[in-house]
Amino acid sequence: MGAPFHAFILAGGRGTRFWPLSTSERPKQLLDFTGEGSLLALTVSRLTPLIPPERQWILTSQDLVGAVREAVPQVPAAQVLAEPAGRNTAPAIGLAAAILRARGDDPAFAVLPSDHLIEPGEEFRACLARALECAERDASLLTFGIVPTRPETGYGYIEAGEALEEQDGLHRVRSFREKPPLETAREYFESGHHYWNSGMFCWKASTVLDGLAAHAPQVHSVVTAIADSGPVGTDAFAAAFESRFAEAESISIDYALMEKSDQVLVVEASFSWNDVGHWLAMRELWPMDGDNNASRGEVLALESSDNIVYGPDRLTALIGIRDHVVVSTDQVTLVCPADRAQDVKIALEQLERMKRPGRSGKDPES
Asked: Helix or strand or coil: residue 196?
């Protein structure tokens, strides 16, 4: 085995589909949906038996650094990096690789979202360890594919190609597919060789940097210049990060590298995965009554069914309400049909244009 494994956790998202609970000051990854801790804290603790906190890194936005450090104090403060500007995932991941390479090592490392729920932890770590070992050994770019459980239009897909001999659960990637219309999603679901794209990756630092140099040289130039300015935590690094990062092209790692490389493998995930993408995901996470009302908080439901209700510090009474999302915070109450749950960001955008409260208001549970 080579250098010890590292993990970079991407924690800069805004989670607008969980408004009004998710706010600019405390977005989705810092919320506790299960009573077991924030999504970010669960991500860090899930990793820890395999990759200890001193080898975990978090990339977030400047306005969230304090809240992130407070949420996961076990991760060294210097390893919570604040992006001066959002530039999508390729510059963030490229910088991660460049930082590790500049330290004189060439470790395999994982890139993971901060806001997914994964169970059981033991199976996740076993699958992750196998992927990291493969990345270290074969200089491959590995991504985790989730076996679809339904035709889903909200995820991108990975089309698997030939299986690797003597590598259980590993396939070459034939193509990446955008979020499909429903009929295409049905075809993918029935094909048996398409996976949901989880946005989780494993690779060696040098493999990422070599790939970016070949396929996204502008991004490579910016991130290596930042990493070569000095060690993380020094004034030189901070100054270069602040002044140079926004110069990088804003592009996803899928477009910049994964779709262009012939070194990409997909690992079939052997664990349960929930991306907690919008309010409807709570049907899998919260207790349900006999009428399929999923709730967090006290609910009186009369002739009401199939609702999602959040109001942990109050009683919510429903009469004749079916298939709705009802969310109560200190500043805002949201009521919408469940099939429009992903549209809550439209209301948020309207509020921002009106400059009304509710975007950044704090909530006791948030």
From this structure: strand
